[in-house]
Amino acid sequence: MRNYPRKGILLEQNKEPGLSKEIRILPALPVERSELPGPVSSTPDLLAPYEIVSIAKEANIVDEIDGRRLWKKLAQAARESVSGIVVDALDDEPYISSQLAPTLQFPEQLHQGLRLALRAIGASKSSIEIYRNLFDLDTRIPSSIMGVKVDRISGSYPAESYARRRLQRNSTLVVGACALLFLQRAVYEGLRQTSAFVTVTGDCVANPGNYEVPLGVSAGALLEAVGLITDPKRVVAGGSMTGFSLTDPSTVYLSQTTRGLLAFAEEFQDMGYACLGCGRCTEACPQGLSPYFIYKVMQSHRKHHIELADADLCIGCGSCSYVCPAKLDLAQVMAQAAAYTRRRQTAGGQP
Amino acid sequence: MKLRTQNPPHIRSRESSLTMMTDIVIATLPLYAMAVYYYGTRALLLGGFGVIVSSMADGACQLLAGRIPNIRDLSGAVTGLLIPLLLPASASYSMILLAALFGIAVAKQPFGGMGQNIFNPAAAGTAFAMICWPKSAFAYPVPFERLPAMVDDTVRLVSSPAYSLSLGGTPNIDLLDMLLGNAPGPMGGTNILVLLTCLIFLIVRKTVGLAMPAAFLGGASLMALLTPRVDAPALTAVAYELMSGLLVIGAVFLINDPVTSPKRTLPKIFYGFGTGALSMAFRHIGRYEESFLFALLVMNATVWIIDVWGEHLAHAMRRKNREFKTNPPVSEPAEQDVGAAQK
Amino acid sequence: MPFVIVPTLSLKAGLLMSAFLAAATIPSAVLASLVGRKIPPLFSLPFYGTVSTGCVLLLRFCVSGQALLLEDLGVYVPLAAFNGMMLELALVHPRRRVPDALHDAVMMCFGFLLVAAFLSALREFLGSGSLWGVPLTAPIRIRGLVLPFSGFILIGFLSALFRRVDSIIIGRMLHASRRTAKQGGDAV
């Protein structure tokens, strides 16, 4: 059990009722089967590493945690001879469970995919990472899945980005759980990746849960297929903390990294509060920055303190905006400050 | 679907400026209840008058500055509630009026209004009232004597234990009486027990943190311990000093004002400790029997610099771990290498 | 600015302060425009300083009957001899004609007189409850106004007020010129 940042914020996860329901394919949005050329190997366990990588390349598998192609990650890991693989099923953002649900519902396939990936990179150690602070779940998270140890990561949000960074430093390959499932399908059943796992939830959704949707379907079509109880006021594609708001869901198409589609009935009123100077953002920032300080410096036209504030360390988690009682858009200001600082750094020629 | 866009994150915490200020308003209500118990309904009249004057001044100043008046975050109301608590219950309405007007229209709005003010408006207003009425601001009614709505000469006014301490003598009031509030003093400042309960309430609700009030009271106690003014055992002297005057109510309400205090923990402790020590020092050399407000205003002026020092410190600590936190560079493998791996 | 804030606690004191400043400034300005060119720069400061000190001393002698007032003004009487207005005028005016210099100096001192009179009247009326020494009852008595601190704050509000009035006047002028332009007037 590794602990990640002590700072950051503890969020209510709200993953039920979606997590415990079966993952379904919607009849209105069927997933088309696209078969790979060539026969399916009858002894997948004896495939050579380069064969696994080339099957991953042909199957167009994209890792949902960073959008990179799986075959490139495997090839690079093989070259760098990493010591092991960690399966990322963290899902530390509220409402989203599109990695956790497949992990719990398809353990065998996950295990087979994991073995394939281990062979591809020539490593032997592996573990699965799941967020520890999931309190309101109906299912129990087991302590090991098919013999692979499950690591419960405790700590506040944002734990996922920290986990990823720490593991990449320790020469471990981090792969998303869904990518391994698609790898297993590619090798054992000869199918390309033509779908993705998406959590559709929110208080406007009639059947909240995880769905396997075909790639390229529009958000509007998905919402209609899942069913809406009321007209939502906000539709978010992506995570609840880092996703983006949609104005016209019928023109936004889902990709492998979307992972979530949320529809909320509540809209936030703009009460016009000014910054209180309460300092909650500074307490919440997992990087130890002071969004209050950066906000004040960016608002004033004298930015000579900006280097002091190290705005380029911002990871864009949104904790500062979350805790702000004045409901300021601190995450945007931090992003602007980070861009400003990086521009100044490159202009100044400093690393 | 008529959708609204919003910048991420799309969920927000349930706390808002309004809830924070409401918590502080709730924390002042027991003090008003005790004041009514001791001095009659005049306490409520003063409180209501203060709220009305402060809110209207707030709105008027915002209107003058060309903004739409927004008093929904109750910050003017909090100032209006705090000012009568820092003054005697026999304060005249003109005293409250002037204190509120000065606090809002001179010490808060010209500096930029809510969130940008340097000085605590309640402290500034009350300090100005103390300067303008040096005798009436320190003449307190006796507890349990009901005050009429308009105070005239028939009300008996006495001096508070702080005055006795400033002369170098031990106050002739029992420590237990001072703890319960049965002593002449500022309307909200005497009920020490209730004040400590309000502090615990605010800390539990996470509206304020523990660092600043603890550092403040610690600093004041240390100075009182080192330089006692009364000829009594050390802890008794410290108890007398802390329970007389505005120190405890300052620790609960004035020093925790989020706008005028530093943001990081170490600067907070430094600020609290400095204010405590400074206010005790002012008690020794000051002209008034209670100079905590002036010490607070002086320290308020230094808060931005303390914040910048805190940022320097945080920057130095981050630089040590900078490699730990920066993103590792993402490298894409070249096409030829994969071709080689395939063979 | 300290001249206008610290000693101006009563109307009489304010007027006297302006008188001293005028005595220091106007003769020096006139003298500067008359003979300024002939004085080498090294000696200009002591020269004008001596002149203005002489005038200040003269005035003080004339009003030496008002001991209380002079005590109120205190150290600002000798300080008036070297005030900034005088220095600026003395350095600028050698190049100008006498009527210009006189006009400049008189206008500056008149401006000071206005502000000092207004401030001191306000502070005396509301702060000490009298005007020109005559006790009057003010609607509200703000004893803190006699402090220098309040004087600075009052100056701040006053300048804010004047800026507002200024912007209104400029706004009206702009509006009028636009109107003339729209009516095909001869504004460019």
TrEMBL record, chain A:
State if Cell division is listed as a keyword. no
Q: Which domain of life is it from?
A: Bacteria
Q: Which residues form the 4Fe-4S ferredoxin-type domain?
A: 264-295, 304-333
Q: Which UniProt keywords apply?
A: Iron, Iron-sulfur, Metal-binding
Q: Does the keyword NAD apply?
A: no
Q: What is this protein called?
A: SLBB domain-containing protein
Q: Which organism does this record belong to? A: Yanshouia hominis
Automatic annotation (TrEMBL), chain B:
Q: Where is this region: Disordered?
A: 324-343
Pfam families of this UniProt entry?
NQR2_RnfD_RnfE
What keywords are assigned to this protein?
Flavoprotein, FMN, Membrane, Phosphoprotein, Translocase, Transmembrane, Transmembrane helix, Transport
Q: Where are the transmembrane segments?
A: 20-39, 77-107, 185-203, 210-228, 234-256, 268-286, 292-310
Domain of life, per UniProt, equals Bacteria
- What InterPro entries does the annotation carry? NqrB/RnfD
* Protein name (database record): RnfABCDGE type electron transport complex subunit D
Organism expressing this protein natively: Yanshouia hominis
